[in-house]
């Protein structure tokens, strides 16, 4: 189970970067990733890669679940909740 902090509002963007040179933070991240890989060379890998679409879908689903919980437990907006009790259904209608 992944526990998410309730009080932090994080935005995570996944992007492909052609090279690490000139991208702030990437050189450090690359160095740390290489160090971690070397320290754990003997760990059996269960999978090679997870498709970015799977990661994106999981993040979106968990985000919507958290949003729905906050929507349900909000102290304000009762009138709007009476019109739109389910955020997923509302978002689907909006995109049509």
Number of helices: 4
The biggest beta sheet reads: none
List low-pLDDT spans.
none
What's the total number of strands?
Answer: 0
Order of helices and strands: HHHH
Beta fraction of the residues? under 5%
User: Using only CA atoms, what is the Rg?
Assistant: 19 Å
The tally of structural domains comes to 1
The percentage helix is: 40-55%
Task: Please identify the structural class as seen in this structure.
Answer: mainly alpha
The outline comes out as elongated
Distance between the termini: 34 Å
Question: What value does the average pLDDT take?
Answer: 78
SSE layout:
Layout: H1 26-39, H2 52-73, H3 78-83, H4 87-94
Keywords:
96 residues; 4 helices; mainly alpha
General description of the model:
With 96 residues, this protein is an all-alpha fold. The chain has one domain. Helix content is 52%, strand content 0%. It contains 4 helices and no strands. The longest helix has 22 residues. The chain is elongated and about 55 Å long. The relative contact order is 0.08.
């Amino acid at each position: 189970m992944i526990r998410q902090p309730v009080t932090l509002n994080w935005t995570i963007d996944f992007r492909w970067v052609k090279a690490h040179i000139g991208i702030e933070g990437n050189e450090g991240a690359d160095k740390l990733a290489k160090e971690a890989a070397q320290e754990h060379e003997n760990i059996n890998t269960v999978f090679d890669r997870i498709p970015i679409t799977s990661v994106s879908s999981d993040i979106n689903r968990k985000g919507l679940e958290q949003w729905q919980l906050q929507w349900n437990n909000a102290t304000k907006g009762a009138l709007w909740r009476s019109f739109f009790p389910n955020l997923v259904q509302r978002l689907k209608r909006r995109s049509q």
